[in-house]
Structure formats: C-alpha cells, structure tokens
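Per your request, structure below.
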C-alpha cells in the first residue's frame, strides 16, 4: 500500500515522510535506537573557530535555520522590528510544509494571525494575495477511555457514562467519554499559511535562501563575540553531472534553530550528553477519504477501546487513537464532514530492544482501524504487571474528574500546558473518585519515580509563585546581557508553570 502512496510533498518538515523509502529509513533508525548502538557519527554542526575572520560583507542580524515554522518566526521578527536584517535558510527547494493539514486550536492560531496582520499593516493594501489559511473547522473532539467498544457513544447515555456508574445494575468498568469543545478543531493548510508568510516576509525585505542546507556553523571563541557567525551552506540537490553540491556561506549575528526535531544542532547536543531517549511515542496513521460524511463532523483527541495488549515477545502496549476531519467547510461547523479523515494510532513506549517494529505497529493499525485504540508504556519486565484495564481505568477516572472540574482544568491540559493548580485539583479529584486504585498506581510508577515527580510538581508551584510575584516587572537595570538573562529567567518561571496559558 505504501509503495502506491502519493509522492512526498515538496516541503521537508515533519509529517512529509509519506513514501515507502522514507518509512523504511525510519524503521532502520528505530531499530538502531532500540539496539542501543550509537547513531552513525556525524561531523559537528557548530564548531568554535579561533581564526574566524571578521565579516567583510553583509551581516544578517538573525539567520533563521529551517523555514517551516521558521518562516513564521522570521515574519514575526521582521514585522515587529522592520529594521532587522533577517535571513531564512531552508533545505527544501521551496518553503512548503506538508500537504496534510495541521490541527490547532483557535488560541494558537490567533498568535499566527496576529503576525500576518502586523505584517500586512506595514505594506500597501492588496500587495500580496490573501490565502485561505483555515481549511477545516469543526466543533471539537471526543476523549474516551473504554475497555471495549460500545454499541453507541457512552456520551449518549449519561447514566452509564462513568467508569463506576452510580446505578449498580449498570455494567461497570467499561469506561468514560467526554466531549472537549474547541480543541485542535481548526485545520490549517500548511501550504497556504507558509506561502502567505513567505510572500509577506519577502515584501518586507527579508532574505531567503531556499534549496540550501546548512552544513556547519562556525562561531567565534569567548571574548570575540563581536565577530559574526559563519553559516556554511551547500545546495540541497547535487548538480546534474553528479559532482559535489555547490558551497556557499553567509554571516549572521544570531542563529535561530528552527530545524525541527531532526535538528543537527540538537543532535550534536544530545550526542555530547551521550543520552538516548528513555521514552518515545510511536505514531502511525493515514489520511483517507471514504468515511461517512454524516459521522465525520468532529474529531477524537485521545481514544481507547481496548485494554492493554500483551505479547510475550514485544511486551505490553496500550494503543490510543486520534482522528480529525479534513477539508470540512470553514465556518460551517457541525453539519457533517467531508468524508476525509486523518487518523493516527499511537503508543508510548520505552526504546528497549524487544519493542515491536514500526511495520508490526502499522499492521496492528490496519487490524484495529475500525476499533480505535491507543497505547501507553508498560514495561515487559516490570516487577508489577498491571491489570490490562489499568490505563483505561486511570484515564477514564482522571478525565471524568477533569471534566467535572471544568474548562479551567481541562483546557490547558488538552493543549499540553501543565498548570500546578489544575494538576493538583485533577489528582485530588481522581483520588476521591477511585481511592482504592491509588496503591496500584504507586506500585506501577515506583516510589523513586513518584518522589522525583513530586519534586518537579513542587518546583512548578515555586515557579508559579515566582512568576506571579514578578508580574509587571519593568525597567530591570543592567547591561543588555543582564537584561537578557533576567528575561530568560522570567520566561522560565512563566512557561515552566503554565502561566502563559490564555483562558478565553
Ligand atoms: C505525523 C505528525 C503529525 C503532526 N500533526 C500536527 C498537527 O496536527 N498540528 C500541529 O500543530 N503540529 C503537528 N505536528 C507537529 C509538527 O511537527 C509541527 O507542527 C511542525 O511541523 C513543526 O514545524 P518545525 O518548523 O518546528 O519543524 P519541521 O516541520 O521539522 O521543519 C524543520 C524545517 O527545517 C528544515 N531543515 C532541517 N535541517 C536543515 C538544515 N541543515 N538546513 C536548512 N534547513 C533545514 C527542514 O527542511 C524543515 O523545513 C505533527 C508532527 C508529525 C510528525
């Protein structure tokens, strides 16, 4: 099936690897990671060069490395400080992102729309064509944690929609479902958004180097910071005669890494620490048409309908599902979808050698596609093997508690922002609903991990307090460097405690 997949999109960002060859390359990387063998050595990306000469030509204030979300950052910089000389370097022949929509929430989209608006305000009206950035909009998503698929949605029957229904005559232990409005319910066209940003960026005088891969960055030694960085580039595609790609370079005062999760800069830092990830999230999925449009009017943000799957060879996995309608009519929510849907199945697991291959997980995907399911990490040799319903019971009760606590707890959580107050309320609510489960959770997590985690929670409370106390702090005295360091401290407190989350 993969060999007949449509050709990959012209962009190179995350989610553009849709061909069989790219899948096989990913399989190889996964099997190397599981085997514990270090990745093939790569030349260092950033090197300190004591003999770096001063620049004798144009020096960009900021070089943005990578132009998927990088072009949005670059436009934001240029539209708020038009005097800056900003250059974006993108390895793909043209900034394009992926073909498939990005799902975001309105709050996240608003940040990007503000940037577009600010940029347009600096240009003569009608200078660049406005494109449809939002190509899909639907009311929201279902979250559900069930040990088996039910004949109909549990939501339709409030009396039995609980892991522990009040009526003892009802079957218990099936699960819980809730509907979370306005989360990941906006489908953004990467092609349209990035084309819009690209046009505006160029109109504001930004510099763009497409089809150029950054090979290396040479930086001056300490004490010579005034010497600009040297960013060495090469053409992404080798010349037709098979010779070496043409080399090129530019100078910049600052390099902003927007090269995504495959960033060679991050890879260098990780390699220097000698660390391998202790947990990963494997995602497989498809975007397909042919679904019933009448039943394609909302999404699934996290959904299970199976207990933990145990296998003697590949350990235990809890599969989760996520799905979003695609290309529904913007501004016409709830009238049913287009019949097109993005569907992912994912599992959280450690990267131990016995874990299944991506091909095996994809095989499970095809088998389970009609019976949505999602996976969480359960170690093969853990001293305590939980009940197969462990994950569903934990999440069903936890979501039931969060849903009852309301949007102030649910909404930040669903948008990956952890706030200590909300976390504490959700934990207490979960404990109150299912106190007998707490010993099992502690046994599964392990006391050392629990103590370590509680330390992080305590730190989040301290960060939240520090962020509140420093609110409105202005006019911090000191050199530019001291002011910058102070600002990074304020940011750490704010973002580290979820204080950046904007409630509607
Ligand atoms: C399957 C999947 C589904 C996802 N779905 C969503 C979603 O629905 N909504 C959402 O918000 N997010 C989603 N994401 C997250 C997604 O990764 C980001 O939203 C987005 O792609 C991140 O953009 P980025 O620019 O940070 O990184 P990337 O998309 O990885 O882009 C990095 C860019 O850097 C360039 N680059 C890399 N190395 C170099 C180099 N040496 N020189 C020059 N250029 C270089 C690449 O060509 C690329 O354009 C999904 C990710 C995956 C994998």
């Amino acid at each position: 099936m993969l060999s007949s997949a449509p050709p990959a999109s012209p962009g190179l960002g995350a989610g553009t690897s849709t061909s069989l060859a790219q899948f096989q390359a990913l399989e190889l990387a996964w099997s190397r990671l599981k085997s514990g063998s270090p990745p093939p050595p790569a030349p260092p990306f950033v090197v300190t060069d004591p003999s770096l000469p001063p620049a004798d030509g144009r020096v960009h204030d900021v070089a943005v490395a990578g132009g998927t979300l990088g072009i949005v950052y670059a436009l934001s910089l240029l539209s708020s400080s038009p005097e800056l000389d900003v250059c974006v370097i993108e390895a793909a022949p043209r900034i394009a992102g992926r073909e498939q929509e990005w799902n975001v929430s309105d709050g996240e989209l608003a940040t990007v729309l503000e940037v577009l608006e600010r940029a347009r305000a600096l240009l003569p009206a009608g200078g660049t064509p406005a494109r449809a950035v939002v190509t899909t909009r639907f009311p929201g998503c279902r979250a559900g944690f069930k040990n088996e698929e039910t004949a109909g949605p549990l939501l339709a029957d409030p009396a039995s929609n609980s892991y522990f229904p009040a009526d003892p005559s009802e079957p218990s232990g099936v699960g819980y479902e809730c509907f979370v409005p306005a989360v990941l319910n906006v489908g953004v066209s990467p092609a349209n958004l990035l084309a819009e940003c690209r046009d505006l960026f160029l109109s504001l005088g930004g510099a763009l180097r497409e089809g150029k891969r950054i090979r290396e960055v040479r930086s001056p030694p300490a004490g010579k910071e005034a010497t600009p960085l040297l960013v060495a580039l090469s053409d992404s595609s080798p010349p037709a005669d098979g010779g070496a790609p043409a080399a090129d370079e530019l100078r910049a005062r600052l390099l902003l890494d927007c090269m995504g999760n495959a960033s060679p800069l991050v890879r260098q830092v990780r390699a220097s620490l000698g660390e391998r990830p202790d947990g990963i999230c494997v995602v497989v999925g498809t975007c397909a048409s042919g679904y019933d449009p009448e039943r394609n009017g909302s999404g699934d943000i996290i959904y299970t309908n199976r207990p933990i799957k145990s296998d003697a060879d590949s350990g235990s996995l809890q599969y989760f599902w996520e799905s979003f309608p695609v290309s529904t009519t913007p501004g016409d929510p709830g009238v049913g979808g287009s019949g097109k849907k993005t569907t992912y199945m994912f599992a959280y697991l450690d990267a131990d050698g016995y874990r299944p291959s991506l091909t095996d997980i994809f095989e499970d995907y095809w088998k389970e596609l009609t019976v949505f399911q999602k996976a969480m990490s359960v170690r093969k040799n853990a001293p305590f093997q939980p009940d197969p319903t462990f994950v569903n019971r934990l999440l069903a009760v936890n979501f039931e508690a969060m849903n009852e606590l309301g949007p102030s707890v649910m909404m930040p959580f669903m948008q990956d922002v952890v706030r200590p107050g909300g976390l504490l309320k959700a934990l207490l609510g979960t404990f109150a609903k299912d106190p007998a489960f707490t010993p099992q959770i502690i046994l599964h997590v392990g006391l050392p991990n629990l103590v370590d985690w509680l330390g992080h929670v305590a730190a989040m409370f301290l960060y939240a307090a520090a962020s509140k106390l420093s609110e409105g702090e202005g006019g911090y005295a000191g050199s530019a460097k001291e002011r910058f360091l102070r600002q990074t401290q304020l940011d750490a407190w704010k973002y580290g405690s979820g204080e950046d989350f904007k409630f509607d």
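The chain is about 35% helix and 20% strand.

Regards,
D.
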